[in-house]
Amino acid sequence: MSEVGSDGRRVVDGRFELQARLGSGGMGTVWRARDLVLDRIVAVKEVRPPDRDLAEYDPDAARMLRERVLREARALARINHPNVVTIHHIFDGGEGSYPWIVMEYVSGGSLADLLARGPMAPLQAARIGLEVLAALRAAHDVGIQHRDVKPANVLMHPDGRPVLTDFGIAAIRDATALTATGSVIGTPDYMAPERVSGRADGPASDLWSLAMMLYTAVEGHHPLRRGTTLATLAAVLNDEVPPPVKAGPLRDVLTRVLVRDPAARPDAETLGRMLADVAEGRQEPTTSYQLQPPPAGSATAVPSTPVGFGPPPAFPPPQDAVPAPTKVPVPPVHRRRRAAILLPVAMAVLGGILVWALLPGGGTDASGSGGGATSRPTASAPAGGDPTAHESPQTAKTTDLLTPDGIRTAIKAFKKETGRDRFGDFTVYPDYVSAYLMVKGSSTKYDTYTYRPGTGVEKGIIRGTLSGGDQPVSLDDFNWDRVPALLAEAKKNLKVDHVNSRYLLLRQPNSVFDSPAGMAVYLSNAYSESGYLEADKHGKVTRVMPFGG
Known about the structure:
The protein is an alpha+beta fold. About 25% of the residues lie in helices and about 20% in strands. The protein is built from twelve helices and 21 strands. The strands form five sheets. The protein has an eight-stranded antiparallel sheet. Strands 1-2-3-4-5-7-6 form a seven-stranded antiparallel sheet, with helices on one face. Helix 4 packs antiparallel against helix 6 and helix 4 packs antiparallel against helix 9.
């Protein structure tokens, strides 16, 4: 437990005096503290769920949170490595309380802080990557997968030594009671495709995350990050990773690791040699590695060994979907999304945190057809018609959902399939629509669904709760007829040339910021130029954010 000292500061376990807050998130707060016994500075992790009454109304979720924290401490204690944060002490008050973890204090900030100043030179990135890889290998050697390798979880000592931290969602072979079949946990941006899909993962999944972190470090942007969590997850599964252009001698390393098939990635030992060659200047920039997707029109004719950054062999897109652009830049984030994906039993703890299994429409049936070769529904049914009326596959392929008729058709299909009419999120792309549909009787709980012209409505294995003041909304009184004009105004005023990505987002009403419902249109191109405009639900423009503005 913690108590208040004579000077008003909190003291944990009668020994650790909290001095300053270093950071906080959905799981609690990390403090800088002084160890009064050894007279040294330490970092203390205080775990607190967003809802202080969690233990009272959901004791199982509170118990799971406590066990997860204890698991993190035990995971760290099993790894003795200079590039893994050292755990000094854990204070556990027992059932009904949350533990405190006392760790070494790393004063140089995180890699995310460093990258916020700009891209990193390839040789520097390779040196950091080599040391983080050493930390991962030490963890893998004792049966631990980190599962959340990202810049924010790499702390930097003042001398430049990186330290891997936050093993809170590490997978340990003997901790299967805290994992769920088909569930994956981690940060969407850096999660390997096999983890997103719920397929078996292993050490190779941590290597993907490491390579994606290095890609982001040298390129200055994340190649698969999109405007929403769902869109990012879909991109990890289905979109091509653009070839790096600033990676220099690191290019070939990234190319070989960022392939969708885990078996095709180099193992940790090989990756270590490759990074060492780059870090020590023994590898020259190369452009000889072929970066080409499979032949056009062959969604299932993918080589058994992936080549470069082509579409995923294990997760080909459905044949009725419009192919994703070759290079999709990073759009501006319309609103803050939940970053972690945790176990289903922790849903009540973490608000907007999700549980992900294979994105609907992202897999194939036994024939590889992506859902069968029967006649398919169209997204442009006549007004008052059945949105699931059959039409030819070719017609379905050419449907643009980013139109008034397309949007209304998707909404009607969602309502007919689910019997629900309140939305917590609604995102329209030219070829599909994703939505959070609220559970009946609840204003916070939602299930996720996807609508595609060729397959209709499919339920995703994603559940969550709205948080941060977001409110559900009915879409009946939105003026979708204004969408073409909004798109035209966006094209005219957002200063984005050669647009290759466009979509529309619901702006949820928010009780905390007292903001009304509305919508936003985003445009971007292959050169990472992007902009967006916002409008109220009647289609009146309220904000324009052009590229460079």
